[in-house]
């Protein structure tokens, strides 16, 4: 299988992924920090020290808010893991090159535009033989 990307293109996408990862980690840290402050405030107000359930609920809310960022962070990390593999930049459904403009916009994507559109329509893509 030929590689779809030049080393320079891989390096560019790697830089994009690392920048995105840093942004997401900052977002998650800020959100989790805010949740932590809510929990600390609840503890201060709780003289009986039986507010564990409420603190747990606050924490749940904070976790839900960060779960989307966590999901994207996971996709970015997966993409970084795949960056040096020959298949990076190739659609995992049809094997065609995803294309540099699409990769620059979404470096973590695993599918070309055509396959992603088909998946959004709920039609599985038959493997190309
Ligand atoms: Zn495809």
Summarize this structure as a short list of keywords or feature phrases.
129 residues, mainly alpha, Four Helix Bundle (Hemerythrin (Met), subunit A), binds zinc ion
Uncertain stretches of 5 or more adjacent residues: none
- Summarize the main sheet: none
Shape field: elongated
Helix content: 55-70%
Domain Zinc finger DksA/TraR C4-type: 88-117
Keywords: Metal-binding, Zinc, Zinc-finger
Zinc finger (dksA C4-type): 91-115
Organism: Ideonella dechloratans
List the topology elements.
Elements: H1 7-45, H2 52-82, H3 100-105, H4 113-120
Helix pairs in contact: 1-2
The structure holds zinc ion.
Structure description:
By secondary structure, the chain is mostly helical. The chain has a single domain (7-120), classed as Four Helix Bundle (Hemerythrin (Met), subunit A) (Up-down Bundle). 65% of the residues lie in helices and 0% in strands. The protein contains four helices and no strands. The protein has helices spanning 7-45, 52-82, 100-105, 113-120. Helix 1 runs antiparallel to helix 2. It is elongated. It binds zinc ion.
């Amino acid at each position: 299988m030929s590689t779809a990307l030049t080393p320079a293109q891989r390096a560019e996408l790697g830089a994009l992924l690392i920048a995105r990862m840093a942004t997401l980690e900052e977002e998650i840290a800020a959100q989790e920090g805010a949740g932590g402050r809510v929990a600390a405030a609840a503890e201060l107000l709780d003289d009986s020290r039986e507010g564990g359930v409420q603190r747990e609920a606050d924490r749940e809310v904070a976790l839900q808010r960060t779960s989307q960022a966590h999901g994207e962070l996971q996709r970015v990390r997966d993409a970084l893991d795949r960056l040096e593999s020959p298949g990076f930049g190739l659609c995992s459904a049809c094997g065609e090159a995803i294309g540099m403009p699409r990769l620059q916009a979404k470096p973590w994507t695993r599918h070309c535009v055509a396959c992603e559109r088909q998946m959004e329509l709920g039609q599985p893509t038959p493997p190309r033989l």
